[in-house]
């Protein structure tokens, strides 16, 4: 569906102009440009690198400090076995279709989405529907009229089917997508060729540790596994108390099949992930849920999507959790905290929604999953995944390694427990089982009560049993009554052991930064459009612009004083002493999103203060250097806003020189 994407000032968004600003002001560029650039890899220039640092600072404060999370830094290089156990080796894949004639590789869901969306656009053009608000542009008008002539009108049933298909695309398996491609004659849009059926391709970058090749490894595709494998240390650090949470900020790598949409789909990206461990018997309640209960969120649920809808309902998180729309309090608490974080950094609340995962989209072990999606000129994009991963990860790693990854908690009252146990006579079994001894021991421990009871009966009857054992030849071992016995034992239990469940908010920092830049971008309509990046003062990459009225060495002492004071206040600043007019200097720095400009003029030399200009309103106030600096520091630390500064400091009465 065509999204009428507008800037914060309500203007049609001009992506070409926006991208040109990003290039001109060196926010980012494709990596290794002199060698022809590599798709899906980007370098950040000073404005974006600083913006990222500011956003990360707020993330650390909002999550790690405020929620008392345990920050971790885990290795990016990950042994094969870890990711085999987690399921990534077998399942971390996307479906791709190959164009057999050109060799082009296309991601199956993107291919379907692009073709179906373009058919729907063509249908709207054929119906003469207005697609974007750029109708006034005569060139575009002409282009549209031409497109409308060539456009293909769909019948109502097909149109409905296409709309439903797009709303439910995330729910399709590889086979489903193959069937859709055949049914709707979906071809490679660039060549017009038919494509081969979807095949699954793993997205991890494989490598090896050491030179022998004996230790295969991957660059991690997420930071989570390192956090799970640090579980015991985390539990020790939190004095054995749950709930507890770890957090990690670091790079992840995915060999995306068709990187596109700039920073939205790249092959190397910064993630900020939280693993919140909770006792499942607590009903996954959150101690601070009451403080967020009445917060309203835009929630697009699974049912609405299944019916082809895309409009979220506004509900309080209290209502959503009470009605079980959101599975539990902890998940609900994090959805609210994610939204508050987004608002804190300056994301437009009208361009944010939470979308529930469809049944097939969710990992098989997940209890519930919601994505925080942000609207950009590319449509709604997942920027944070918030999943309830249940006990899956800790359980599989415990099973694979034999490491205890549970919580042990004293019971209020001892409980009498009757259970079947398998007793292995190690003296006798050692020489017979040899290297398999450990594996058999682990397998016997893992047998269910039911299976152990059956084994005891079989032993009595036949004197031997067959037990499944992972990692041995044939996958099973025959054991006779000489070396193993199955008996029912009664004991008093004083401790409870359980595997915590994990709620995981997972942030893609690059996607958030890109959306944020689009949300902050607008143009000042004057003789010609001038672009502005309205970054909040708290996150702006550079906080202050220092502009002497003219190139004149007499300004040097006041500038030096200002610089020292800004430095003392730990505020980043830029001095623009170039010969061009003040207005031009302001406007070219508006493109960098510098929120405040301090102008030093001849009156400043007589101790009559300096002028402070605010980027978005272009309004100015004048006061003593100390008062202006106090105001700037307060606004950059988020302690005061421009409205209140304007009330307490006199407006600048002189000529406001804007280009
Ligand atoms: N290729 C990528 N480029 C940039 N950010 C990404 C990429 N893949 C994932 N992310 C970010 O990491 C977050 C968590 O990853 P997750 O595994 O949930 O994503 P995903 O469901 O695989 O994303 P998608 O379906 O868009 O590929 C996402 O919400 C997103 O912000």
Can you tag this structure with a few keywords?
glycine-tRNA ligase activity, 4 domains, cytoplasm, alpha+beta, nucleotide-binding, 659 residues, binds adenosine-5'-triphosphate, Signal recognition particle alu RNA binding heterodimer, srp9/1, tRNA-synt_gly, aminoacyl-trna synthetase, BirA Bifunctional Protein, domain 2, 9-stranded mixed β-sheet
Description:
By secondary structure, the protein is α+β, with helices and mostly antiparallel strands. It has 4 domains: 51-89 and 212-406 and 499-529, BirA Bifunctional Protein, domain 2; 108-190, no CATH class; 417-496, 2-Layer Sandwich (Signal recognition particle alu RNA binding heterodimer, srp9/1), CATH 3.30.720; 542-648, Anticodon-binding domain (Rossmann fold), CATH 3.40.50. Helices cover 36% and strands 26% of the residues. It contains 23 helices and 28 strands. The strands form 8 sheets. The protein has a 9-stranded mixed sheet. The protein has a 5-stranded mixed sheet with strand order 25-24-26-27-28, with helices on both faces. Strands 4-9-8 form a 3-stranded antiparallel sheet. A hairpin with a 5-residue loop joins strand 27 and strand 28 (620-623). The longest helix is centred in the N-terminal third of the chain and has 20 residues, at 46-65. It is globular and about 105 Å long. The protein starts with 14 loop residues before the first helix and ends in an 11-residue tail after the last helix. 32% of the residues are buried. The mean pLDDT is 91. Bound molecules: adenosine-5'-triphosphate.
